[in-house]
Specification:
binds FE2/S2 (inorganic) cluster; five-stranded mixed beta sheet; mainly beta; about 5% helix; binds iron/sulfur cluster
């Protein structure tokens, strides 16, 4: 098997961060815990919660597949070599400057950057989030639906304050109902492009792991198509 080898230089930085290899995997530094997490649906097929799965015994530095072809998922097996175009196409506009704003009840807004939607479906539950933000009684539902949004497409703002879940630094390889889902990066872990530029630091980010996103490195729900 053509295993992907980390170079000596890759091992020098011990801080928690993710660097992206050109046309290759995500390199994870700093002993970041890795687990599996799956979407649970109800009888109506609506996404209702995340269910934690196995925890991996990962190394301090490890490589996660970005091409979708690895034979040792979620880890890189080297299958990408000469077969994967991983060109990063995401814009560098800050989230705050590139969102749609949905107005809710008094003092409530919902920020949405649709290209970051992974299609996880939590905002389509009971009631849909656009409706939930319009009534003070359903704000708790809206908060939970936003918190479950892995790519941080949605952010709730109440009286000018962004409502973010408290997330410790952790990575989940997610499973959608019928297919693999993105890599959910939690707790403001820096992500560095193959061109050595850092993406905006965010509490919740979903990275593509099927290799098909048009908004690499971020998931754009292409795994569902
Ligand atoms: S915006 Fe977020 S919560 Fe809604 S479907 Fe997309 S990923 Fe799910
Ligand atoms: S990125 Fe290396 S096998 Fe997928």
């Amino acid at each position: 098997m053509n295993r992907f080898i980390l170079t000596v230089q890759d091992m020098t930085d011990e801080n928690a961060k993710i660097t992206i290899k050109k046309n290759g995997p995500y390199l994870i530094f700093g002993n970041i815990p890795l687990r599996e997490e799956s979407i649970q649906i109800d009888a109506m097929g609506k996404a209702i919660k995340w269910v934690e799965g196995q925890k991996f015994n990962q190394n301090e530095v490890y490589a996660l597949c970005r091409c979708g072809k690895s034979s040792t998922m979620p880890f890189c097996s080297g299958e990408h070599v000469n077969k994967f175009d991983g060109t990063e196409t995401a814009d560098d506009e800050p989230y705050n400057d590139s969102c749609l704003i949905h107005e809710g009840c008094d003092g409530v807004k919902l920020m949405e950057k649709h290209i970051l939607c992974t299609g996880a479906g939590f905002c389509h539950a009971y009631p849909r989030i656009e409706i939930a933000i319009k009534n003070k009684k359903t704000l708790e539902v809206a908060k939970q639906e936003c918190a479950n949004c892995p790519g941080g497409s949605l952010t709730l703002v109440i009286n000018g304050e962004k409502i973010e879940p408290i997330l410790k630094k952790e990575i989940s390889v997610t499973n959608d109902v019928k297919t693999i889902g993105p890599i959910w990066v939690k707790g403001e872990i820096p992500i560095i492009s193959a061109n050595n530029e850092q993406y905006e630091l965010r509490n919740r980010v979903a990275l593509c792991r099927c290799g098909r996103s048009k908004n690499k490195p971020f998931c754009d729900a292409s795994h569902l198509k």
